[in-house]
Amino acid sequence: MKVIKKINNNVAICVDNNNHELIAFGKGIGFPQMPYELTDLNKIDRTYYGVNQNYLGLLDEIPEDIFEISAKIVDYAKGKIMNEVNSNITFTLADHINFAIQRYKKNMVIKMPFSYDMQHLYETEMRIGEVAVKFINKVLEIHLSKDEAVGIALHFINSENMKTVKNGEINENQVISDITSIIEKEFHIEISKKGFNYSRFVSHMQYLLKRKEKDISIISENEKMFEMMKTEYQETYDCVLEIKRYIEEKLGWNPSNEELLYLMLHVNRLCSREDCNR
Q: Of 189, 153, 196, which is closest to residue 56 (Cα–Cα)?
């Protein structure tokens, strides 16, 4: 195996003997001068093929132990899910877990109740989410709410093979593109569509639309957080109100304050990044 580009000390882009590019995890594989031939494959802990290049930036942002937790959850899920899951799931799930932990540390509780639809239409994915939350809590010695299982379940639902949009179903790509245009207009910025920051935002918008599709409401236990965000991030709130008007007109859906809070968190996160140029 040839190591061709360092991501960090323990992660690198490699090429296998069939000339297929992959991401490899292994202690110290990023140290030597690039490129080099790695003859001792025992140094490789994990490999990933077909990873979206936009997600590579996450490797410098998310702690390695979170990636390891995500990888173990995905390994468990692959033994339970019949459909093939997207190759990027370990990366997007690691980001989701990391953000959930950040919210937990800041005591930002966004409650997503278990719904009848989720429990019965996606029983396997919900079970994976429940097992994942218990595993995260045990390994990190924290106390994420069991409701986080819904968000993790939605990650796997979204990552299973994409189906063609049918009549009457939401065209997610168009809706997310329209929402992005609203954000760019309101903030007078140009958002790079090539970076992992935008890819992450798209994922979170997909989860919001999936919850709408399955009638899964977000119920926040902290109304004060919503009021605080409105005051502290007035520009973000104004932008989210424009998105709300679009959603009402396009989808016939009136988002709750809790869903607006979710939007504010992720719009603010998107626009605070350096790959949004004013």
A: 196
Tally the domains of the chain. Answer: 3
Tell me the C-alpha distance between 33 and 21, whole Å.
19
- What is the tens place of the pLDDT at every residue in 132-187? 999 999 999 999 988 889 889 988 887 764 443 444 456 888 999 999 999 999 99
Are 94 and 26 contained in the same domain?
no
Question: Are 194 and 254 contained in the same domain?
Answer: yes
Q: How far apart are CA 118 and CA 202, in angstroms?
A: 22
Domain boundary among 162, 191, 219: 162
Under the banding of pLDDT at 50, 70 and 90, the label for residue 245 is very high
Q: Percent of the chain scored above 70 by pLDDT?
A: 86
Buried b (16+ CB within 10 A) or exposed e, 84-106: ebbebbbbbbbbbbbbbbebbee
Each residue of 39-66: pLDDT tens digit?
999 999 999 998 888 888 888 889 989 9
For 14, which DSSP code?
A: E
End residue of a domain, out of 139, 162, 185: 162
Q: CA separation (Å) from 53 to 172, 196, 246? A: 22, 8, 31
Residue 226 inside a domain? The answer is yes
- In this structure, the answer to whether residues 107 and 183 fall within a common structural domain is no
For 228, phi and psi rounded to 5 degrees?
-65, -45
Contact 71/90 with Cβ under 8 angstroms?
yes
CATH of residue 62's domain is: 1.10.1790.10
Taking the complete model, does pTM exceed 0.85, yes or no? no
Residues 227 and 193: beta-carbon distance below 8 Å: no
